[in-house]
Write a structure and sequence with these properties.
Low-confidence stretches: none
Helix content: 10-25%
Number of helices: 3
Order of helices and strands: EHHEEHEE
Radius of gyration: 26 Å
Mean pLDDT: 77
Structural class: alpha+beta
C-alpha cells in the first residue's frame, strides 16, 4: 500500500495552522535615533492605513519631509506614544466629595455646588 502524502503542514487530513506575522505580533523596541517611514510604524504597531497620516495631519506626530518622502525619528514616536497616556478617572469613592453634595476644588479649596 502506498503511503499517503500530506501537503506541508497537514497531518491526519486536518489543515495546518498557519501563523502569519500579523497574527503573531512581536515586541518591537523603538530606537530613539532610528529613522522610520510611516508604513514601518503602521506595520510595527499594527495600525490601520489611515492612522499615521491622521496623527501627522492633527499635529500629534512629528514628521520630516526630505526628497518627497516622510521620515519619523524614533524619539518622536516615543514622545507621541507617551503623550497618549490615558489618564485614569476618579474612583467612585472620591474624598473630595462632601456629604452635602458640594465638590471641593482640589487646587484652591473653594467649594462649589
Amino acid at each position: 500500500m502506498k503511503a499517503q502524502e500530506h501537503p506541508a503542514g497537514e497531518s491526519n487530513g486536518r489543515p495546518a495552522t498557519v501563523e502569519t506575522e500579523t497574527k503573531r505580533r512581536r515586541i518591537h523596541i523603538v530606537e530613539p535615533l532610528g529613522v522610520y517611514t510611516p508604513d514601518q510604524i503602521r506595520e510595527v504597531l499594527g495600525l490601520r492605513d489611515n492612522s499615521i497620516p491622521r496623527e501627522i495631519r492633527a499635529g500629534r506626530l512629528r514628521v520630516a519631509k526630505r526628497c518627497g518622502r516622510y521620515f519619523i525619528l524614533g524619539s518622536w514616536i516615543i514622545s507621541w506614544l507617551e503623550a497618549g497616556i490615558v489618564a485614569r478617572g476618579r474612583p467612585a469613592h472620591d474624598p473630595l466629595l462632601n456629604g452635602a453634595g458640594g465638590v471641593v476644588d482640589a487646587g484652591d479649596g473653594i467649594r462649589t455646588k
